[in-house]
Amino acid sequence: MNNSTVNILDLPDEILLNIFKTLNNMDLLYSLFGINKRLDNMVCDINLTRSINLMMLPSNRAIDWRTSTIRDRIFMQLLPRIHNNVECFTVQGCFFLRVLLAGNYPNLHESPFIHTSFLHQITDLAVRISDKITNESMETLLIGIYKNIFTILTNLKYLDLNVNDTYAFGKSLLKGLPSNICCSSSIVHLRIKMNNFEDFLSLMDGRLSQLHTFIIDLDYIYDTCYAALRFNRRRFNMRYLSSSVLNIAKTLRRLKCFSLYVYHSTAEFDSHIVPVLRRMSNLEQLTLSLRIRERTSFIDGTHLHNYILNSMPHLHSFFFDIVTERVRFDQHLRPSPGDILSIFTERGYNANCYVNYDHHDLGRCHVYSLPFNMERIRPITGSFPGGRFMNIRVLHMFDIVQSFEHEFFAQISLSFPVLNHLTLSNTISKNVTPLQQILKPENASSIIEFSHLVELGCFDVHIDYVEQFLSNLNTRLPCLSKLHVKYEHLVTVTENFTRNATRINCAKLKHIDFVYNVKIMRSKNFYLYFPLLYHHKSHYS
């Protein structure tokens, strides 16, 4: 007799399916899903996936990589693929949210856990996404999350969908969610991140009839109709005012608290934002964080009072962080910070501001309310007057007119005591070079410390600023673990990874991104200079 072996993949599909039907379907899914396309198609057969039992799935307390991989495969790959097949679901309570967000389950009619009465009990929900994933994946994930939450949870009162604001999305996150299928009309408090102004208007179309607190982060201020009619601004504004603002007036009048943060600059402040804000006649608290461009004047207290705040008789709290940029002024008619502040003072607002003018007579004004209680602040320049900002953890500093000097960085370290992520953009060399700074007799007492700084970005900078931060004769960075820098700058400042003065601030680096994706020479000195970088197999771009 000849000995022979038969690989399971050598069997025809019909025989394999008959074998699979005699086995526990969850054992099949755990062990075979993800091996190859053929097996995926077979184990995802509707006859094998009508009933799903996840009670044996290791709980969230099991943190080894094997169980974590199994869980991620189930929730991120398997359930989104088979959710249309599922008729019966059994799942641990700790996995409820992940199951909910993985699919729609249109055919689900039996579940010991996920059923209508349970969903109806959920009144408060906060969603956090901390994983490092691509923008495209995040966008797809959020579209699914938004759709499921707004259509499945019928008794929500408080919903916080707080997403890292560094993600920028290319399309509406309400895709496929018409207002007539929104079941979460009971929401009274909503925090959410969305793509553009069209998303905002969609949520205000009457589907959220009980909403009184609305905190929204947008990437852009525009809608698709406006983009198509950009050549005819007057015609668009007439359409916009008649079909958008008037249709959402009832929802806007109901709001008591409104916060708007827009990441990118906008030229549509007067045409889009102001008309909407004027409809919020019952507002009691307003927060605005905006970058505004293409105006003929800076936004000041008079403009805000006359065009917005006058329409809000019940308003008692107004917080703002507003930049007006690229405003052209005659050289003899430039407003000073004192001119801007006096108007706010006359209107009863406690604020601070600074103004910059470039070589082309273009002005930039940054005005913000005090005390500053927001968690983010608009990018600052070398004219920033300082202050105390206890909530700011992420900061972008830039300037195209003046350099950043050592004393300015000392001021920044005091103004932002909990800063953990700093990005610099300034190609102007320092007036006092780092070497001259070191030779000052008072230097020992002037070393700056950023006690909590974890990430430093030197994307578009003069090499002086790399020296400023990496040399421990200028700056102490006890927690620095991630650096974005030009490779040639790093080589020069560290003297080809041999210099002792920069070794201490580099010793804890676990991740380096080199600007422009240059190829690096990984010498022995390189590995010795960054010991944690080597052992953690971190990313070299």
From TrEMBL:
Span of domain F-box: 5-52
Domain of life: Eukaryota
InterPro entries: F-box_dom (IPR001810), LRR_dom_sf (IPR032675)
PROSITE patterns found in the cross-reference section: FBOX
Signal peptide boundaries: none
Protein name, per record: F-box domain-containing protein
Originating organism: Rotaria magnacalcarata
